Amino acid sequence: MSDVVAAALVARRDEILERLMALLRLPSVSTDPAYAEGMKATREFLMARLKEGGLEDVRLLEGGGQPAVTGAWNGAPGKPTLIIYGHYDVQPPDPLELWKTPPFEPTIRDGRIYARGASDVKGSTLIAVETVIEFIRAGGCPVNIRFFLEGEEEIGSPSLRSIIDRHPDALVGDAMISADGGRASTTLPTVSVGSRGLTALRFTLRTASKDMHSGRYGGAVRNANHELARLIASLHDEDGRIAVPGFMDDMAPIGPREAEDAAALPVDEAEFYGGIGAAPYGDPRYSVRERITLLPTIEVNGMWGGYIGAGSKTVLPCEAHAKLTMRLGPGMDPVRAQARVRDHLLARAPKGVTLDFEESGNGTPAFTLREGHPLLAAAETVIRRTRNRAPVRARAGGTIPITAIFKERLGIDTITFGFAMPDEDVHAPNEFFRLSSLEEGLRAWPLLLSELGNASPEALRAG
Amino acid sequence: MSDVVAAALVARRDEILERLMALLRLPSVSTDPAYAEGMKATREFLMARLKEGGLEDVRLLEGGGQPAVTGAWNGAPGKPTLIIYGHYDVQPPDPLELWKTPPFEPTIRDGRIYARGASDVKGSTLIAVETVIEFIRAGGCPVNIRFFLEGEEEIGSPSLRSIIDRHPDALVGDAMISADGGRASTTLPTVSVGSRGLTALRFTLRTASKDMHSGRYGGAVRNANHELARLIASLHDEDGRIAVPGFMDDMAPIGPREAEDAAALPVDEAEFYGGIGAAPYGDPRYSVRERITLLPTIEVNGMWGGYIGAGSKTVLPCEAHAKLTMRLGPGMDPVRAQARVRDHLLARAPKGVTLDFEESGNGTPAFTLREGHPLLAAAETVIRRTRNRAPVRARAGGTIPITAIFKERLGIDTITFGFAMPDEDVHAPNEFFRLSSLEEGLRAWPLLLSELGNASPEALRAG
């Protein structure tokens, strides 16, 4: 049955690609209110497709922010119910001037589709949607389905908990498959067994009540840019090791399984650094794979202060701003990590320098899929069949908040089964998705749903 | 004669105020090409007034950038020829949201006129223009006049040398009076005897060739914001002392005259810091007056990198930017100071971090009017008469590039005789100019021109 479905999907490849391009034309940037229309149009697009494809109970799940899109199929009594996760929001496209073709005009070049959201994660989300629709068309799905297509993944899922709590009926399932969380290698087959956590901190630093003339005050007043620079510089040592006291205290030590998995998927440093034109960097006690998947980070994603227009302005600025996010290793508590960084900044701010922190949510802990989980077994079987070798177990350096939140709220586990690859410039200009990944996904997803149809709901729930 | 002229000017006060408001409505921001129309309109406004007032040879002096406005009066043969300097350009008005009334809609509140450029320096410039016009109307000026109204003061006068070199005929004079360079105290009468120099440095820092996803690369790649912060933090020590090796090596030591003048004009620290809501700061070996008028500074006027829009973005930025200006103490060479900072930054940039410096001109050295100069004697006489006590000699912390450049190119000295006060929020939101200063200026300028009519051209030129 899954072979028939996979063949039908591959035969419909051009039609599915057209649909993906239409989806990518809709500018669904969740962080910026200017894109509200694009967000709405994207939700409507997905709901229309789910209804057309035979899903039931297609609707929006409101939680106070951007609603999620859901749809169900209940035709496999006694079989497991799988929640399928994807997200329809994308990162902002700036800096716009660095895009070769406009971010919301998808363009195919050299077997790749270039557009904001192509890789993260409209491509993989549509693979999942079309797979379920094709099963329904062919007579029925091997498992019961609940789609959960989120609209706030790129902003840290602020109302996800609220959506889950307000709609307990819509989200009853035995386990989850996520279309987000891509592949770790462009060459080796991999299966994802975990991800880093994430928490954020945004603040404004002030040294005076107004901007000053550098000729009138320069030499006798603190410059907000200098003070912010000093605080940011204090977060790391010269080797890039985090210098915030206590930040990593609750992290689980890297064990033999983690070290072994990381070693099985060595990073080709020449390719890794060559591809981004950067020099090697990071904690020398760990391999690059460990640095980018297991170690925590503190990154200043944005900072600004004073005059940033054309030319010069001899202003002595009273205010400067920073936006930070921290990636978290296994075991680290997001709220505690956030507090450690906040405390460090406050402790180092000299007299006369104030810091105002913006409310920026609680964050998400790291996630790990335990050894022997039926989700993991099913994914490994599928990858072994489609790639003709056993997959390497890989942790993702990014964060899939949904995995941790569904575990916490509903007690269910997640396997990530996305088809993005690690070099596709997500969150950056010229993001792309490989057309070969589209086809690979359309072959693998039917198999995965079939495999999970053989698992018992109880075993899935037991984890 | 000067009393008659002063009385006539004071009688015309309301008319002159109307004219000042019209001038302030013209948005003449020199640093931003978006204001080209406002710059042009301002030049036309000034040329029309000079022509109407009986000045001859009214025209634009081109030098490749924003042209200067000139006009002459030659009716006092044998008397000195004075160049009168002012500038018609203003600082950018941002941050716009902090203005109580719009920056280019001048508004009178509590005896003050609020507008961008009111204090710096359209108010004082118009006082000079109207004084000369009133003398001409009354039968003639005690000295010959050349107006030189610049359009690039707020961007460091990049084409001033070129204007002077291209128009040697228009700028022949024995000395210069500058309407720019205001008063040092809101209570004590002062006369200005010098100013700090200024030089600029702007650069872009890069750690990679493209922005990266912090989940995919975080922990193994240098973040441009962190690197920029580290470099900026290295410019000063904890007390705000400059930490750039060799930066101050060529500075003239602070002598007994400088120390005495600084001590005669002590800064009221409670008022100084209270007025800007800041805590005391700066090199503890010097008084606040010395810090803000004699010591050099390095200020980061603007810095930015990564995502600075609404919400969060988990980008790991490859690029960050900084705009610096340095105030210079007496004796310091601007090009050398600039090179010292550039070398310091380059020496501290680690492998894999590149810095690209933007061309930002040569800068201006500090200026000092020597003891016993006839310009100084004339100004002291006028202030003694109008304020009934001898003025305190004050150095300006700001920079009047014109004084150094006219000395260098034409060998003439400058007295600054502006009526701005030090608390008028120049270069900041809600800039204002006191209406009382307008009247005071209209009384003092006629006296100054009369006094200088008694000086010999040779004595003025001899300095």
In short:
The structure is a homodimer of 463-residue chains. Chain A has 463 residues and is α+β, with helices and mostly antiparallel strands.
Describe it for me?
The structure is a homodimer of 463-residue chains. Chain A folds into two domains: 2-195 and 366-462, Zn peptidases (Aminopeptidase); 197-266 and 287-358, Alpha-Beta Plaits (2-Layer Sandwich). In chain A, the strands form five sheets. A six-stranded mixed β-sheet of chain A has the order 1-2-6-3-7-17, sandwiched between helices. A four-stranded antiparallel β-sheet of chain A has the order 11-13-9-14, with helices on one face. In chain A, strands 4-5-18 form a three-stranded antiparallel β-sheet. The model of chain A has no long low-confidence stretch (mean pLDDT 94). Chain A has helices at residues 2-11, 13-24, 36-52, 118-137, 160-166, 214-217, 224-233, 256-264, 269-276, 288-293, 334-348, 374-387, 401-410, 435-453, 457-462; strands at 56-61, 68-73, 81-87, 107-109, 112-114, 144-150, 175-178, 190-195, 197-206, 212-213, 297-306, 315-316, 319-328, 354-358, 367-368, 392-396, 414-416, 432-434. In chain A, helix 4 packs across helix 14 (435-453). With 463 residues, the first copy, chain A, is of the alpha+beta class.
